[in-house]
Amino acid sequence: MTNLKQCRPGCFSSLMNTSSPPPRGRRFASYAASVATLLASTLLWLAFPVPVSAQPTIITNVAVPWEGLTMDSTLNQIYIFGGENWAPETVVLDGTTFVQSGMGTGWGGSVDAAKSNYWSATVYAGTVIARSGTTHSTLAQVSLGYCPMTTACDAVNRRVWVGAQCGGDMVFAIDADNYSVLAGPLNTGGTMSSVIANPATGRAYIYTSAGSTRVKPPVYSLTANAFDRVVAVNESSNLLYVVSNSGEFQIRNGAADPETLLVSLTPPFSLGDRSVAVNPLLNRLYLANGSSNDIAVLDAISGQSLGNICLGSEVSSVRWIAADPPRNRIMATAIVAGSPRLFVIQDCFVLGLTMHAGITIFGPPGQYQVESATTPNGGTWSPVATVTLTNGPCIYVDLNACISAGRFYRALKLP
Fold first, then answer.
1. Contacts of residue 384, Cβ cutoff 8 Å, sequence gap at least 6
2. The whole model's pTM is what?
3. Average pLDDT estimate for 307-314
């Protein structure tokens, strides 16, 4: 573990009398002394989040009626949807107890993260329904005609995108606050497959049998993309994850116009529309294997493989997947003995806190040698690092402090 030096101007007013030992902390204290120049230091404790390695853990797996899946991390609720075209349905699971309750008609669901409203499509009924995630009551039922199949919420730009089939496969944009239709029907010219929203730009990406298109508000028109299916979006990094018709997996710059290719790789298995999820807090991509029992984990920016999570030999196919970033969990529906089950997995990279000691150095500009000892009087002072002080106090943090014996610190100005 290397030392961290953070030198920046600061406003420190307390001075330590270096003629007497400084107060000692529970394990560490900071200490400053100088041969040429009187320095001052403050007792310094800093907490840093660090990854704590552990094996991925399957928290539970429970029987669910269908494979469709989305997650509301704010309310800690899991939505499962499916059924027949003439009777699509949704159930909601408590994310702690995993108790299921009926939510009502609709599938192709998505969550408005700003309000925790749940949107779903009713197919043959020709409507989309907005429900409160808190009360599960209906807030609005928006009539569109056609056969609404899928929804995509853009909580930042306050839009809900809807993909529909029947009588021409159309795209609609709905105001997420007043439930009015902003645009549509926009004719895609093909059989509807998926709609993905990128809240970082406000764009929507549509994939049909006719190819890949996008809508870029405030202009509500479909334009062709130079790439294929967008299967997931990393809103924090403004990245698009794309699966080409040849099976290639791409990471594209979502901010660029047009969206430029950053990474291209061959995925470990074929990927479907809902088989990719992203955890931006851990910088992880999760890829569901629809032909086997595992989930591949990739770096969300570089695409580098980080390993695989096996769900067990009884699993024949991993279907839909969603991330729960605040709890570092993965939600996946998988087929066991011909029936869907929901697997809840604790990611292996969990953030913990570690405490470190150090020293705040005051003095004229120049180089200082930071030294440590186990006792301030009569001990042996050993060099720890050389720090350059510019135009203000310097904070030196010893990242080895938490794994060493108690330490005192001083800083000596070098000639």
1. 3, 370, 371, 372, 398, 409
2. 0.72
3. 91
Picking from 14, 35, 42, 45, the residue whose alpha carbon sits closest to that of residue 366 is 35
Angle at 47 between CA 41 and CA 49, to 5 degrees: 145
pLDDT tens-digit readout, 18-42: 333 333 333 333 333 333 333 334 4
Residue type at 126 in one-letter notation? G
DSSP secondary structure code for residue 123 in this structure: G
pLDDT digits (tens, 9 = 90+) for 353-388: 555 677 888 788 888 888 888 777 767 888 888 888
Q: What 3-state class would DSSP assign to 125? A: helix
What are the backbone dihedrals phi and psi of residue 402, each rounded to the nearest 5 degrees, phi first?
-75, -10
Burial class (CB in 10 A: 0-12, 13-18, 19+), 156: middle
Rounded distance, CA 359 to CA 42, Å? 7
Q: What is the reported pLDDT for 247?
A: 87
Instruction: At 167, list the tokens.
Output: 């009588």
Both tokens assigned to 303 = 């695409």
Per DSSP bridges, beta strands 239-243 and 192-198 are unpaired
Separation in Å, CA 250 to CA 37, 300, 323, 375, 408:
58, 11, 20, 56, 51
What's the CA gap between 309 and 347, in Å, rounded? 9
Structure tokens at 316: 């024949």
